[in-house]
Predict the structure.
Amino acid sequence: MAEKKEKKNPFTPSFGSVPPLMAGRATLIADYIHGLGNGPGDPNYASILIGARGCGKTALLTKIATEVGQYGWIAAEVASGPGLLEDILERTAGSGREFLEQPARSHITSVSAAGMGIARSFQPDKTGNWRTQMNKMLDQLAVQDVGLLISVDEVDAADPELHQLVTNFQFFVREGRKVALLLAGLPQNVSELLQNKTISFLRRAYQHHLGSVPLFDVRETMQKTVEISEREVLDPELEVMAAATGGYPFLIQLIGYHVWRQSPEQERISAEDVKRGIAFAKGMMDQMIFDTTVKELSEGDLKFLLAMLPDEAGSTTAEIAKRMGVTTNYAGQYRRRLIEQGIIEDMERGRLDFAIPMLREYLEEKSVE
C-alpha cells in the first residue's frame, strides 16, 4: 500500500519569502509593470516602496523582479550597504548573461620554467568607472530592447553608495535609457534619504505607501492558500483568522502558518486550530517584530505610545499630551515621527490608533512587567 504523502504547509512567514498568493498587492504590481511598458519618462521608472516592518516590502520587491522578466526586463536585486555598486554590476551581468557579451574570465599570470604548468587568475574584465561599466552593459541590452530593473532593499540614508547610485541614475534618465530604480525601506529611513539635498531628484520618485490589506482580500487569500494544500477552512474560522491579522501582510502568513500546522493530518481546520495558531503567532510577533521595533524608539516615542493605551477607540493628540504632561505642540512632534515610521496612523475625527496589529497588547503586557 502506497504511503500517504504528507501535506506541505503553504504559508511562508519567513522574511522576504514570496507567498504563493500575495494579498492586496495585485493592483500595485500591475500598475508598476504597465508603467515600465510605457517607456522611459513614466513615473514608475523611479519608485519607492515605503512601509513598516512586516508590511511585505522585500517580498513585493522579489515578486516584481520576477514578474518583469516576462516583459523583456532583467533585474538586479540588491540591498543597501557596502559594496552596493559592485553588487549591481555583478547582478546585472548574471541576470543578463544571455544578452551580454561575456568577457574573458581568466588570464595567464605565469608559466613554469619547464613549460609544464600554467597558472591562471579568474577576474572579470572591467575597465572604466561604475557609470562607464554600466553603460557598456546597458548599450548591449538596448540593442535587444531589454530593460534593467535595479531594486534596492532596506535603504539606508547614510549609505554613500546609494547616493552615488541615485546620482548616476539621473544620467540614465536623461539619456532615455530603459532602466528603472525601485527602492524599498522603512518610513523613517526613506524620509531621511529624501531630505538629502544632494539627491533631491529622488523626491520626485513615485512613492507607494504599503498600508494594511483590506480584510476581504485577506480572507480570500488565506482561504485559497489553505486550499493549495488540499485542506479547507470554513467561514467562521476564516473570519477569526482574517480579523486577527488586522490586514498586516506578515501576520497573514504567520497566523496562516501556525493555524495550519496545529492539525496538519486533518482535512478541515478547526476552531481550536485557529485559537492555538493565533496564540503561537502572537508570541512570534513579539520576538520578530515588536522587540526590535520598540528598541529603536526614543524615550519620547515610547511615552507617546504608552499614553495611547487607555483609549481603545483611538486617542487624540490633546489626550496623549495631557497624559505625557507636555503641550499639544510638543506631543505633535512625536505624533509626526511615529506616523512616518508606520507605527501609528490617523483615524476618523482626528484620532490616532496603532498601525501594527497586536502592538497595543504587546505594550500593555510590557508596561505591567
